[in-house]
Amino acid sequence: MKNGYRRIQASWGRFAHDLDTQESGLDAAEIIASAKRFTESRNLSVDWSALDHLQPPELIDTLASSLPFSPEEKQGLVEAVVMGDRAELLRALCEFGAATTEDGSPVSH
Predict the structure, then answer these.
(1) Residue 71 vs residues 8, 65, 74: alpha-carbon distances, Å
(2) Is residue 4 part of a domain?
(3) Side-chain-side CA neighbours of residue 109 (13 Å)
(4) What is the domain extent for residue 67?
(5) What is the pLDDT of residues 48-64, one digit of tens each?
(6) Which of the two residues, 67 and 27, has the higher pLDDT score?
(7) Could you tell me if residue 27 is inside a domain?
(8) Beta carbons within 8 Å of 15's beta carbon, 6+ residues apart
(9) What is the pLDDT of residue 81?
(10) At residue 101, does pLDDT exceed 60?
(11) Which of 19, 36, 9, 23 is nearest to 94 (CA)?
(12) What's the number of domains the chain is made of?
């Protein structure tokens, strides 16, 4: 303790890849297509042109924080450390959220 405060030695090694600028394998068009199916199935209006300038990592984070997922689903997105994992989880949540039953109602889980 110093001046009444605990002192820690943080290990940021797990997040070292956050500084990488290259995220290979992230397909913005595929992510947007999944998100569009999700928003259309929920009758949500989105200004997709506002997302055109975003690189895949920013697009993924923006959609993950903006789309109406449950708190548990959002927590899973936050906890996905690797961007590729976050992208795949976002895509899966969008696809599952866009799925409907035979009578056209949304699938619940």
Answers:
(1) 30, 11, 5
(2) no
(3) 11
(4) 13-98
(5) 999 989 988 999 999 99
(6) 67
(7) yes
(8) 81
(9) 83
(10) no
(11) 36
(12) 1
- Return the sign of the alpha-carbon dihedral for residues 42, 74, 83, 108: negative
- The residue written with tokens 């797990």 in the block is 14
**99 φ/ψ angles, rounded to the nearest 5 degrees:** -70, 145
What is the distance between the alpha carbons of residues 100 and 53, in angstroms, rounded to a whole number?
A: 31
* 40, pLDDT greater than 90: yes
Q: How far apart are CA 69 and CA 94, in angstroms?
A: 9
Question: Which two tokens mark 92?
Answer: 């899966």
Does 19 fall in a domain? yes
> Is the Cα dihedral 82, 28, 69, 92 positive or negative?
negative
Whole-number CA gyration radius for the chain: 18
Q: What is the pTM assigned to this prediction?
A: 0.74
75 within domain boundaries:
yes
